[in-house]
Design a protein that fits this description.
The protein is of the alpha+beta class and 228 residues long. The protein contains 6 helices and 12 strands. The protein has 2 domains: 157 residues, Alpha-Beta Plaits (2-Layer Sandwich), CATH 3.30.70.2200; 63 residues, no CATH class. The strands form 3 sheets. It has a 6-stranded antiparallel beta sheet, with helices on both faces. Helix 3 packs across helix 5 and helix 4 packs across helix 5.
């Protein structure tokens, strides 16, 4: 599996990083099996420069054999530069095998201040492709964190997976799973197989390396929750 992480691609006047990540995923889908696009929440702190909520995004790609990471990196860079927003500080990270140290970096980026120099040094140690594409290139922090967090399989939520964004209104659990959701569960982990689920803006969590819709009962149907 390849993880493509990106961050700081937007401004207050532009669409967010998640939107750009979905656009890139659609383009890459011509040559790769796109497993989904996830959003990952980083540290909320007034000392951290961010557009709104300091989140980053990761695209998961399924590959067979040894991928050409140089070609992929070049393609994604072009797509990001084509959508560059003046005033943004975009960063990009692409990794095939994600070391545990990168996931630990992602966890720390959720809990404490980390630096661009630290991200760059860590990527260099493990030979990961990490590049800044404009501004002060501060987005490399979130890009590396996104790769590390997505690789854990236990963080963030999907902003795109399968046909989930095509769903609307109340839908059966079976319909949701046919659209690409691996499971529907309650907050305490109980599986849900019956009833209707409100699917407007359904954003399943990334858990067990899969898209899991976490729901709670509301009157006569299941209401999905947005988890980080």
């Amino acid at each position: 599996m390849i993880f493509v992480g990106l961050d700081d691609t937007d401004t207050l006047e532009s669409r967010g990083t998640g939107h750009l990540a979905r656009h890139i995923a659609v383009t890459l889908g011509q040559d790769y099996n796109v497993l989904g696009v996830t959003r990952h929440q980083l540290l909320l702190d007034p000392r951290v420069p961010c557009t709104k909520k300091n989140s980053c995004a990761a695209i998961a790609l399924e590959v067979n054999g040894q991928p050409d990471l140089d070609d992929l990196t070049e393609r994604v860079q072009r797509l990001m530069l084509d959508s560059f927003e003046p005033g943004s500080d975009p960063g990009l990270c692409i990794a095939y095998a994600v070391p545990e140290a990168i996931s630990q970096f992602g966890r720390r980026a959720q809990q404490q201040l980390v630096t661009k120099a630290e991200a760059e040094a860590l990527a260099a140690v493990y030979g990961l492709s990490l590049v800044g594409l404009g501004g002060d290139c501060g987005g490399v922090i979130g890009a590396l964190a996104a790769v590390g967090l997505a690789a854990t399989g236990e963080d963030g939520r999907y902003v795109s997976v399968g046909r989930s964004r095509e769903l609307s209104g109340l839908q059966s659990v079976a319909t949701i799973m046919q659209a690409g959701i691996a499971a529907v569960r309650t907050v305490d982990g109980q599986g849900v197989s019956d009833g209707l689920v409100q699917t407007d803006k359904l954003r399943p969590a990334r858990r067990d390396g899969q898209a899991v819709a976490v729901v709670e009962w509301c009157h006569d149907h299941w209401l999905p929750l947005k988890l980080d």
